[in-house]
Specification:
The protein is built from six helices and four strands. With 212 residues, it is mainly α. The strands form two sheets. It has a two-stranded antiparallel sheet. A two-stranded antiparallel ribbon has the order 3-4. Helix 3 packs antiparallel against helix 5. The two termini are 15 Å apart.
Length: 212
């Protein structure tokens, strides 16, 4: 009887693993689309950030010599493609197959109910892309971070767009919404496989015990 149960579990497990592979492929396709859109957005975000920083440091920029300005612009231009690639690589190498295991959600989870979490490890890894450029700007005496009442932030940081009443969806948000659906299906399938693997291990142990 137990051997029959074991065989049935094994059959179910093989079927679930095949489904999981399909779900993983679908999820990775969504990941690729998400990163491709970030890759499209990042250069313009970089350029806007530079313009904002120059404007907010106008008095200091006017005090720099022409030679200093040329050196700063040259250093920024050289770093620009490296910074963008650094950000994309950080996203590509993050753990997009992460699934919640404890059942307790956190604002710092890589992926949340609305998709890629802005405070999570995946998105935060992107924010390091501008560090070397920020160092260049600071070396020439420019202040990079914007300061608000109780916090500061870098103008280089790209935000995950959110939908508010009466607003039009941005492409990245549409992709993110599709990603979370694929992610939920993947994690559900992964949980099913894990459960069947554990069930099979326990059943085989009972079979072995019963057979001696």
């Amino acid at each position: 009887m137990s051997k029959l149960i074991s065989a049935e579990i094994q059959k179910s497990l093989e079927s679930s693993r095949q489904k999981l592979q399909l779900k993983e492929t679908a999820l990775l396709d969504k990941k690729a689309a998400f990163i491709e859109e970030v890759k499209r957005l990042l250069p313009s975000k970089f350029d806007r950030a530079i313009s904002e920083i120059i404007a907010s440091n106008a008095n200091h920029v006017n005090e720099l010599t022409a030679d200093e300005l040329r050196k700063m612009k040259s250093a920024i231009a050289e770093e620009r493609p490296k910074a963008i690639q650094k950000g994309i690589t950080a996203l590509e190498t993050s753990d997009w197959l992460w699934c919640q295991s404890s059942g307790v959600t956190s604002g710092n989870d890589p992926i949340g109910y609305s998709g890629v979490n802005e405070q999570g490890a995946i998105w935060q890894s992107l924010h390091n892309y501008s560090k070397d450029v920020e160092t260049i700007l600071q070396r020439f005496g420019l202040q990079v971070e914007k300061r608000m009442a109780s916090y500061s932030f870098s103008p280089f940081h790209l935000s995950v767009p959110r939908i508010y009443t009466g607003t039009t969806k941005e492409r990245l948000q549409e992709i993110n919404e599709g990603f979370i659906i694929a992610h939920e299906e993947y994690c559900k399938s992964k949980s099913e496989v894990n459960s069947l693997e554990e069930q099979l291990t326990r059943t085989k142990a009972k079979e072995r015990y019963d057979s001696v």
